[in-house]
Design a protein that fits this description.
Length: 135
């Protein structure tokens, strides 16, 4: 299950312990966990949520709402919309960090080549990006 989901074995045990997975059956002879198809599907869903940056409390909320079915559709929509907004903000921060790193590389390249104009352009862009980090 760890290979299939991308979760570590300790994470799977933790999720079981805190109730995200429920009790997982054990093989009587080896003691290894045996994930039923429904639990495996749940692990895969949690893996997708975690990879989107959702917290454990968000995953718990998702499962609680899922248990309520269509009656909780509006709340599910809100949960996923909020997570999408958070992810969009994270992506924007990563974009800024990428721009910063590329401009720093350009600045040092310009210095290595002795190109003062290119260095100045890179510094101006670095300054702009740093100002965006503050806001």
């Amino acid at each position: 299950m760890a290979r299939r989901s991308g979760f570590s074995e300790p994470t799977l045990r933790y999720y079981e312990k805190i109730g995200l997975l429920g009790a997982v059956a054990r093989d009587e002879s080896s003691g290894h966990r045996r994930y039923e198809a429904a639990t495996a599907d749940r692990v895969e869903a949690l893996s997708c949520l975690r990879s989107s940056g959702m917290t454990v409390s968000g995953m718990r909320r998702y499962l609680d709402l899922l248990a309520r079915g269509n009656a909780a559709a509006a709340e599910q929509r809100d949960l996923f919309a909020a997570q999408a907004e958070k992810l969009a903000a994270d992506i924007e921060q990563l974009r800024l960090r990428l721009t910063y790193l590329r401009q720093k590389a350009d600045m040092w390249d310009a210095r290595a080549r002795g190109d003062a104009a290119a260095e100045k352009r890179a510094i101006n862009e670095i300054t702009r990006v740093l100002a965006e980090f503050i806001h």
